[in-house]
Amino acid sequence: MSTGLIITLIVAAVVVLAIALFLVRRGGGPHSVKRRFGPEYERTVAQHNGDAKAAERELRERLQRHGELRTKPLTAQEREEYEAQWAAVQERFVDAPVEAVASADRLLSRLAEARGFPGDGYDEQVSALSVHHPRRVQGYREVHAVAVLAREGQADTERLREALVHARALYEDLMERSAHDSHGGGPRHEHDRDRTHADGTGSRGHGRLSERLHLPGALRRHDTSGGRA
C-alpha cells in the first residue's frame, strides 16, 4: 500500500470521526436522539402520528433552546421549605385530593423555576424539563392535566393518586443536589434514580406515597361519599 493511500485513509477516518463527534454534541442522528430522550422520544413520535423525522426535528429544536441550561443550586432554606411543602401535599391528599394535586402542580412549577428552568410559561418550562429530565417530565404533564380535570369534576380519586405518584418522581429529580450545590455530591444519572424509585424509597426517606397516605382507607372514605374526588 502506497504512502499516499495510507494518508488518504487516515484523513478520511479523521473526518468521519469529527463528523460523528459533532453529531453527538448536537444531539446526533436518530439513534442518539432516541437514546437521549427515551420515553419522551416515543411520546413525541406518537404526537407526530408516527413521523419519526418530524419528532426528531422537534427534539433537536428543544436541545438547541435548552441544552446549554445549567441548573441552579437550592439553598438549605429553600430545600427545607420544598421538602415541607411536598410533605404537606402528601398529607393533605387524604382529606382533600383535588386541592393536594393542584398544590403539587404549582409546587413543581415553582421548584423548576428555582432550579433555573423557564418560569414564564408552562409549555416552555415543560420543553426545557423534557431535555434535562426526559424520563420524569411526563409526571409533571400528568399532574398538571389532572389538576385541570379535577377542577371540572372529571378526575376520580384513583386518577388523582396516580398523578401525584408520578409527579413525585420529577420532584425528587429536581431536589437532587448538583455538583454546584454547597454540600457537593454530583448529580446522579436518571438510570441510577430509577433503581431508587423502583424499590419505593425516595432520596429523603418519605417512603411510598401509597404507604405513607394509607390510600386504600382514604379511597374507601371518598368512595362512600359518592366516589367524587
Distance N to C terminus: 78 Å
What's the SSE pattern? HHHHHHHHHHHH
- The total beta strand count reads 0
Q: What overall form do the CA principal axes indicate?
A: elongated
Query: How would you state the average pLDDT, rounded?
Result: 79
Number of helices: 12
What proportion strand? under 5%
Helix content: 55-70%
Summed up, the domain count is 2
Sketch the major β-sheet.
none
Structural class: mainly alpha
Oligomer: single chain
Rg, nearest Å: 22 Å
Architecture overview:
This is Secreted protein. It is a single chain. This protein is mostly helical and 229 residues long. The chain folds into 2 domains: 3-66, no CATH class; 76-223. It is 69% helix and 0% strand. It has 12 helices and no strands. The protein has helices at residues 3-25, 30-37, 39-47, 52-66, 76-93, 97-114, 122-132, 137-151, 157-175, 190-198, 209-213, 215-223. Helix 6 packs across helix 8 (137-151), helix 6 (97-114) runs parallel beside helix 9 (157-175) and helix 8 runs antiparallel to helix 9 (157-175). Mean pLDDT is 79; it is low at 20-24, 182-189, 191-211 and 213-229.
